[in-house]
Write a structure and sequence with these properties.
Length: about 110
């Protein structure tokens, strides 16, 4: 009888933990549908900042990185000579490592 109560307790704990993860995912999905920026969105935003500003040598004046709900928006304001394919290169980078960069919207809005 004692081992049966241990098995029931173990199954209850497993069910509770599984249910909690499902609940957390449901809350995340609801937050994104309501327009909330999640921790994962901010991680993608920081990854883009690192690759564009620190490693790419661009400034926020040249390429703007904006966190969004479920995606990161990159707005290219200035293009250096020889960087005509910058937008497609950024999209290619996002496709190569979707876990790091997440869904990405790239726009070109050149300043005159």
């Amino acid at each position: 009888m004692n081992s049966l109560s241990h098995i029931i307790t173990l199954l209850s704990v497993i069910t509770l933990l599984t249910g909690c993860e499902g609940y957390r995912q449901a809350v995340r999905n609801f937050g994104q549908s309501a327009g909330a920026v999640t921790t994962q969105d901010l991680n993608h935003y920081e990854a883009w900042q690192n690759v564009i500003y620190k490693h790419g040598g661009h400034t926020a004046k040249q390429i703007e990185v904006i966190p969004g709900s479920g995606f990161t928006r990159l707005i290219i304001h200035e293009v250096r000579p020889g960087e005509d394919g910058l937008a497609s290169n950024l999209l290619k980078l996002a496709a190569e490592d979707p876990n790091r960069y997440g869904p990405t919207d790239v726009r070109t809005e050149l300043r005159h």
